[in-house]
Amino acid sequence: MSNSISLTALSKSYQINKTLFHAVDRVNLTIKKGDFVSIIGKSGSGKSTLLNLMSGIDQPTSGQVIVNDVDISQMESSLLDAWRGHNIGLVFQFFQLIPTLTVLENILLAMDFCKVIPAKDRVNRARSLLDKVGIIDKADQFPSILSGGEKQRVAIARALANDPPIILADEPTGNLDSVTAKAIFDLFTELNAQGKTIILVSHDSDCHKYSNQTIDISDGKIRSNIKSVEVTHCA
Predict the structure, then answer these.
(1) What is 3-227's CATH topology?
(2) What is the bridge-based pairing of β-strands 88-91 and 166-170?
């Protein structure tokens, strides 16, 4: 089984006034195919930057990012967009849904952009994904009338649109109540059981209950990396 993600001496720095700020500082990390990884830490710890480096949204100052045997560290942005569409599903804290498109159209747009799924199959796939996340009845509605939990489910369906092997989620439950957050965690657990590699960033330490690897990051450095033999799911 090949590694999904390998980070070697990975750093990302920003110049703020006259001070060099190390958002990610010489991180070494291996995440295997099929893992469910939680990255925890306080605001400003570097966890979201780390996720952006894994997806190619950000380019490293130094170091290497290899995803499914492809070095994306210095890949041109035009190639990165196509690569990401085939390999990474992104879920954001604030959903990033297009308000002028229906729920179904938001899913279709992801498929139309990447062209991984044949055009004749896209509508059926989009509806199947919405059914999978439990909101097929909202397919023809606009995002503005959905609850926070429903919007996040749409965002997860969109992340799955092109059947990527890796799902990266940045604070996906940050704006949700505890009951809705648990439902979202349960959905990620189900996707992981189906073979998806899940990497979830959160400031909520409870997310470790759903994962088999928990990484605690502070000041851009990994402070601890705990692997569990079994995942204990919340009741």
Answers:
(1) Rossmann fold (3.40.50)
(2) parallel
Looking at this protein, which amino acid is placed at residue 114? Answer: C
Question: Which pTM was predicted?
Answer: 0.89
Helix (H), strand (E) at residue 83:
helix 77-87
Which string of DSSP letters, residue by residue, matches 139-208?
Answer: TTS-GGGS-HHHHHHHHHHHHTTT--SEEEEESTTTTS-HHHHHHHHHHHHHHHHTT-EEEEEES-GGGG
Q: What are phi and psi of 22, to 5 degrees?
A: -95, 95
How far is it, in rounded angstroms, from Cα 25 to Cα 20? 12
Question: Measured between alpha carbons, how far is 177 from 195 in angstroms, rounded to an integer?
Answer: 27
Q: How much is the pLDDT for 166?
A: 96
* Angle, alpha carbons 70-71-76 (nearest 5°): 110
Q: What tens digit of pLDDT does each residue of 24-33 get?
A: 999 999 999 9
Task: Tell me which H or E stretch contains 87.
Answer: helix 77-87
Residue 64 zone, left/alpha/beta (φ > 0; ψ -120 to 50; rest): beta
The β-bridge partners of 170 are 201
In the three-class reduction of DSSP (H, G, I as helix; E, B as strand; rest coil), residue 34 is classed as coil
